[in-house]
């Protein structure tokens, strides 16, 4: 049987985009497919964890043995995550959460009359920051999709959100990141870093989890 280093641990993962309505027929969202988060969910389960997967709207099958909670908006994702967080040991936020939602969702379909349309947006809650700043937070791993200054921006998110680790992906690299089957990650934690080379997301998930387990054990025994 494969090693079960996450036996007895509850791992919570967010995946996919969120979708924020503008009116009854339109929304804003992004290109996240959910593949990165679903791969981590599958491999955490294979390593023996109890796995909860809070997923935005994606077209992926639920990995066997994984408890999936479907949500659409950032606010719904926050609520689902907060209800599970008290029982979880490790939180891995791969979701590409919409930073803003429409200030007012139009009750009826927005009509195309004027030549210009201005919409006002309100900032969404930061789910990962909310979890990482709880009085006794789980081990928190954030993701950062960056198109420039990858290391500096990722390290800033690590510090600002008070995370245990951040996994940065450079989204300018062809064939990696959003909506592809492969990715590469630069991991940073307060005392160190590691590069995980370009490879299928399913393999990358194992390498990521191995580092997470190492740092989690370090944190819980020091
Ligand atoms: O889904 P795939 O197609 O497989 O693509 C994977 C991915 C590219 C989406 C993934 O690898 C990735 O990088 N996800 C993070 C995307 C991102 O840009 O996150 P961010 O920089 O907006 O946020 C940083 C961290 O805070 C993330 O862990 C995010 O989940 C979290 N966050 C952000 C905003 C918010 N309101 N709530 C959050 O929890």
UniProtKB/TrEMBL annotation:
Residues 11-222 are annotated as: Phosphopantothenate--cysteine ligase. Residues 6-214 form the DNA/pantothenate metabolism flavoprotein C-terminal domain. CTP binds at residues 99, 109, 125-128, 143, 157, 161. It comes from the Bacteria. The keyword Magnesium applies. The keyword Magnesium applies. Its EC number is 4.1.1.36, 6.3.2.5. Its cofactor is Mg(2+); FMN. Keywords: Decarboxylase, Flavoprotein, FMN, Ligase, Lyase, Magnesium, Metal-binding, Multifunctional enzyme. Pathway: Cofactor biosynthesis; coenzyme A biosynthesis; CoA from (R)-pantothenate: step 2/5; Cofactor biosynthesis; coenzyme A biosynthesis; CoA from (R)-pantothenate: step 3/5. It catalyses: N-[(R)-4-phosphopantothenoyl]-L-cysteine + H(+) = (R)-4'-phosphopantetheine + CO2; (R)-4'-phosphopantothenate + L-cysteine + CTP = N-[(R)-4-phosphopantothenoyl]-L-cysteine + CMP + diphosphate + H(+). GO terms for molecular function: phosphopantothenate--cysteine ligase activity; phosphopantothenoylcysteine decarboxylase activity. Binds 1 FMN per subunit. In the N-terminal section; belongs to the HFCD (homo-oligomeric flavin containing Cys decarboxylase) superfamily. In the C-terminal section; belongs to the PPC synthetase family. Catalyzes two steps in the biosynthesis of coenzyme A. In the first step cysteine is conjugated to 4'-phosphopantothenate to form 4-phosphopantothenoylcysteine, in the latter compound is decarboxylated to form 4'-phosphopantotheine. This is Coenzyme A biosynthesis bifunctional protein CoaBC. It comes from Alteromonas gilva. The gene is coaBC. The chain holds residues 181 to 402 of 402 of the full protein.
């Amino acid at each position: 049987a494969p090693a079960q280093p996450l036996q007895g641990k509850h791992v919570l993962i967010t995946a996919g985009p969120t979708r924020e309505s503008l009116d009854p027929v339109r929304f804003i969202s992004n290109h996240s497919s959910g593949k990165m988060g679903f791969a981590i969910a599958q491999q955490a389960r294979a390593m023996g964890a109890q796995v909860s997967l809070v997923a935005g709207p994606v077209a992926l099958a639920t990995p066997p043995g994984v408890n999936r909670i479907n949500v659409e908006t950032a606010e719904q994702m926050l609520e689902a995550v907060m209800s599970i967080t008290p029982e979880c040991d490790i939180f891995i936020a791969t979701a590409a959460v919409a930073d803003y939602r429409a200030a007012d969702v139009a009750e009826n379909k927005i009509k195309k009359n004027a030549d210009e349309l201005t919409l006002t947006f309100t900032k969404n809650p930061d789910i990962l920051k909310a979890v990482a700043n709880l009085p006794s937070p789980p081990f928190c791993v954030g993701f950062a999709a960056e198109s420039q200054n990858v290391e500096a921006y990722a390290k800033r998110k690590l510090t600002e959100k008070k995370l245990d680790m951040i996994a940065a992906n450079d989204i300018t690299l062809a064939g990696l990141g959003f909506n592809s089957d492969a990715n590469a990650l630069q991991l940073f934690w307060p005392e160190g870093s590691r590069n995980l080379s370009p490879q299928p997301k399913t393999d990358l998930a194992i390498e990521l989890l191995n580092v997470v387990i190492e740092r989690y054990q370090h944190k819980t025994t020091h």
